[in-house]
Amino acid sequence: MRHFLTVILLYFLTGLPLPAWSLDSFKLDFEEGFQLNKADVAGKASLKLRGPARDFDFTIDAGTQYDVWVDAIHAAGGGRSLALKIYSDKDENVKDKIELNVVKHYDPERVRLGDNISHYLSFDFMLDPKYETPKSWVLHVQVWQCCGMNPPFAIFVAPNTARNGDVEFRFVVRDDTEQRKDAAASAGKEVYRMNIARGEWNNMIIKMDPSDDDDTKEGRLAMWYNGSLQFDYRGDWGYTPGQIAKKHNKEMLPDMAIKVGIYRRRQATTQILYFDNIRVGTTYDSVAK
Prior knowledge:
Elements: H1 2-14, E1 21-22, E2 25-28, E3 35-41, E4 44-50, E5 55-60, E6 66-71, E7 81-86, E8 95-103, E9 111-112, E10 119-127, E11 138-145, E12 153-157, E13 167-173, H2 176-181, E14 189-196, E15 202-209, E16 220-225, E17 228-234, E18 244-245, E19 250-251, E20 255-265, E21 271-281, H3 284-287
Antiparallel strand pairs: 1-2, 2-21, 3-4, 4-5, 5-8, 6-7, 7-21, 8-20, 9-20, 10-15, 10-21, 11-12, 11-20, 12-13, 13-14, 15-16, 16-17, 18-19
């Protein structure tokens, strides 16, 4: 919060126009003022997206073969988008990851259990024409609850043995009940599935109201695709704060992060996709075009 107030004060004092975000919303359009800073720190990849008002970082798993660039050819609006690519020539039981941390679990815009505030995520995206259907699990969007366990909400891609087969997005939620069925690898509950065409820009708006098994709130997850409501799920998704996540031996908090990108089991396939106009806000209108 202090960062936001400081920036707003500076803009008023200097007479410059306010940036394209407010206390409850912001937008990443990857146009002027956005650039990628790549570095290698002690043999570990470091990547930041520098913005005109704030910076965003990436999470990259060791050994991941990837590329990320600001693309001046493909864009949903304006002239640039954010492109991400993961590839490998091996099938291994390890994880590959290159994700943009749009909202961290400690940011003011974080999704939070029990705050009675609706959260909206909007983004334009396109699958590259050469996007290969994964042989194993891949996800492109996740809401991750600190600090451990599988994401309570994620958009997965259904595996397919045909590299050029249909790309099916699976919208999956998890809660305490689902996780306890298999704490190591809960498949979660699929609430919606849809085919996504390659080479076409589309817009997705997601309404995110989490809940856990021990609160009295009804959780909600809704999604609009190119302006049309696709589903409106009512039910728990999220983990009760205070319990210990065995994987990391850490206490679960009510705070959740929002991540977009490519996160997968390593496999000999290549996924390339583009994001543009990523918006976060507390109302539908604040993130809609």
